[in-house]
Specification:
The chain is an alpha+beta fold. The protein folds into two domains: 32 residues; 123 residues, Sandwich (Immunoglobulin-like). Helix content is 19%, strand content 42%. It is built from one helix and ten strands, in the order αββββββββββ. Strands 1, 2, 3, 4, 5, 6, 7, 8, 9 and 10 form a ten-stranded mixed beta sheet that branches. 20% of the residues are buried.
Length: 158
């Protein structure tokens, strides 16, 4: 009788452990990029008044992004990501290794994102971090058009 009761308790504990493991995995898969939803409320975004916007007749995109971005106090100091396109929204997601550390959200035509918080500063080491800026292109109704990648360096200054 005691042996049967012990077996039931062990089975219940194993089932609970399995449910907790499945729940943690689901949270990681479904909620893993929650903090990468667009610019923070303190992002520095300005209207670019100096560059003429490019029409989309040629099917190309025109952007600006610094190849070396200083990261100080967990902030991208000089990203200077600019959308020079008339009829496209652009989004910049920055990846270090296999981990996304930043997501600009969709930048309207003619806008420049100068700096913002890094969503995952713990993924950056002191000094130079090789990174990929994934630039996604959308029409004005938020339908995806394409993507291009730019190699950049995130220079973390302590």
């Amino acid at each position: 009788m005691e042996n049967n009761k012990t077996q039931k308790i062990i089975i219940i504990l194993l089932v609970l452990a399995l449910l907790v493991a499945v729940g943690l995995l689901a949270m990681q898969l479904l909620g893993g990029e929650e903090e990468l939803k667009g610019p923070s409320q303190t992002a520095v975004i300005e209207k670019n008044e100096t560059e003429e916007l490019t029409p989309q007749t040629a099917g190309q995109i025109r952007i600006k992004i610094n190849p070396v971005v200083e990261v100080k106090n967990d902030t991208l100091q000089n990203l200077n990501f600019c959308n020079y396109n008339e009829e496209r929204k652009l989004q910049c997601k920055i990846k270090v290794g296999e981990e996304y550390v930043y997501d600009s959200g969709r930048l309207e035509p003619g806008m420049e994102l100068k700096g913002d918080w890094v969503a995952k500063p713990e993924a950056l080491e002191s000094g130079e971090n090789e990174a990929t800026a994934e630039i996604y292109s959308y029409d004005l109704e938020d339908n995806p058009i394409g993507q291009t990648n730019v190699n950049i360096v995130l220079n973390k200054v302590d």
